[in-house]
Design a protein that fits this description.
single chain, binds pyridoxal-5'-phosphate, Aspartate Aminotransferase, domain 1, five-stranded antiparallel beta sheet, Aspartate Aminotransferase, domain 2, alpha/beta, about 450 residues
């Protein structure tokens, strides 16, 4: 021991991070006096930070991603083998893992048939918007180009996906936005815009979409983009009657229904896809995070054959196909990882586990509701749950964001990582978020809610 730092001395990493890394979504001023967090290692449901501290990850890599848990050797091996065989060729050509995964995926999505590979959720959504716009040009003289999106939903970080973003705080300062995106009301009954409940509220909220279509002119509206369960906007499960009516409206006005499954897709709600909880028949579905659980970057835009056919009906016209490319959408590591990810979900019955553990999580959260006045509402589907915090249950005044964040920090200090809506909606960043991996055990779920119980007691008394 001569006091010289070893090559594996983590303090060097921390200093390099502090000097050179621009982290996502965080104010860096505090790093002048404190260390940034570095996650060094993960196994199953647990991660370890630069100080060797163990945490249960209640949010699957922070953003609903690592659905099958950390340290999956068979995914790593599949990716390694594929990289050695062929790491890349542009997506104008096919690939072996690309074909195999597409076939497996389409088996889970009756009514849909075509997979367009991309590398992020934002990009997949952009491509859906491009298809809707191109269809407008090809079939409707350019007129049917407006795209409806919903208050509180999020579809990505690019300027056009922010233009379709219903979270004003996230959007602020990034305008001017792309024209032609029109907002429709959210469907969170807990903060209902009409004095209605249950099915009546669900239908009224959907009727509001029809009113907007009529006001804009149905011949100008080409697409409606919705999350099946709103994620970062507050874990909003749709009210009864909502989706049936949305489906009818899209059909009536010849509007393409684009479901953003970037969070719900590939198991999170206990079904392969969130929309499958509601009997919806989408024209386009986008997915990303859980597709390969973060072992490789992959996103998919899946369409019906009818949408696909619209791009090949006149091969003599050089403009008449989807003239789009994505360099990394051709990486073979993504589908190679996605095949094994899906195999794991099937072989380990993780959809069933998600439903069972989701029920346990919801039931634990409702028990906390009985104990802590500060919980105003509990919502969720499968292992995708939220608890909205309020300072007054009667008038539903949102809890202060700094107190909500104090609960998250208290859990972190206890070695439990949970999330909270943040920088999304002015004054309404007050929902605690839970999305453990689909492999969670009863003990993991109980450890998460026990940590929340004591954090709520400490922060709110
Ligand atoms: C519903 C939804 N859509 C799209 C995105 C964007 O995905 P990405 O960050 O991969 O671009 C996100 C990211 O959180 C999301 O939650």
């Amino acid at each position: 021991m001569d006091g010289t730092p070893r090559d594996n001395d983590i303090s060097k990493i921390v200093e390099a991070d502090r000097a050179h890394i621009w982290h996502h979504l965080i104010q860096h001023k505090p790093f002048e006096t404190s260390e940034p967090r570095i996650i060094v290692e993960g196994k199953d449901m647990r991660v370890w930070d630069q100080n060797g501290k163990e945490h249960i990850d209640g949010v699957s890599g922070g953003v609903w991603t690592v659905n099958v848990g950390y340290g999956r050797e068979r995914i790593a091996n599949a990716v390694r083998d594929q990289l050695l065989k062929l790491n890349y060729f542009a997506g104008a050509a096919g690939s072996v893992p690309g074909s195999i995964f597409a076939e497996k995926l389409i088996e889970k999505m009756p009514g849909l048939s075509r997979v367009y590979y991309c590398n992020s959720g934002s990009e997949a959504n952009e491509k859906a918007f491009k298809m809707i716009r191109q269809i407008a040009h090809k079939r409707y003289g350019g007129k049917k180009n407006k795209i409806l999106y919903r208050d509180r939903d999020y579809h990505g970080t690019t300027i056009s996906t922010l233009s379709a973003g219903g979270q004003d705080e996230r959007n602020a300062q990034y305008g001017p936005y792309t024209p032609g995106f029109i907002r429709v009301p959210h469907c969170l009954e807990y903060r209902a815009q009409w004095d209605l409940s249950g099915e009546e509220y669900g239908q009224r909220t959907a009727d509001a979409i029809e009113e907007i279509i009529l006001a804009e002119g149905p011949d100008t509206v080409g697409g409606l983009c919705l999350e099946p369960v709103t994620a970062g906007g507050g874990v909003i499960t749709p009210p009864p009657g909502y989706w049936e009516r949305v489906g009818e409206i899209c059909k009536k006005y010849d509007i393409l229904l684009h479901i953003d499954e970037v969070v719900c897709g590939v198991g999170r709600t206990g079904k392969w896809f969130g929309y499958q909880n509601f009997g919806i028949r989408p024209d386009m579905v986008t997915m990303a995070k859980g597709v390969a659980s973060g072992y490789a970057a992959i996103a998919c835009l899946v369409t019906t054959e009818t949408v696909f056919e619209m791009f090949k009906d006149d091969a003599s016209d050089p403009m008449n196909y989807f003239r789009d490319i994505s360099t990394f959408g051709g990486c073979t590591a993504g589908p190679a990882a996605a095949i094994e990810n899906m195999n794991i979900i099937e072989e380990e019955n993780l959809l069933e586990n998600t439903l069972a553990m989701g029920e346990r999580l919801m039931s634990n959260l409702w028990n906390l509701y009985e104990k802590h006045e500060v919980i105003g509402d509990v919502r969720g589907a499968g292992l995708f749950c939220g608890a909205e915090l309020v300072s007054d249950r009667r008038d539903k005044t949102p809890a202060e964001e700094k107190l909500v964040q104090a609960v998250v920090a208290d859990c972190m200090a206890q070695g439990i990582i949970i999330g909270a809506t943040n920088r999304s909606l002015p004054g309404l960043n007050n929902t605690l978020c839970f999305s453990p991996a689909l492999i969670a055990t009863p003990d993991d779920i109980d450890a998460i809610t026990e940590a929340v119980d004591s954090a709520l007691s400490r922060v709110f008394g």
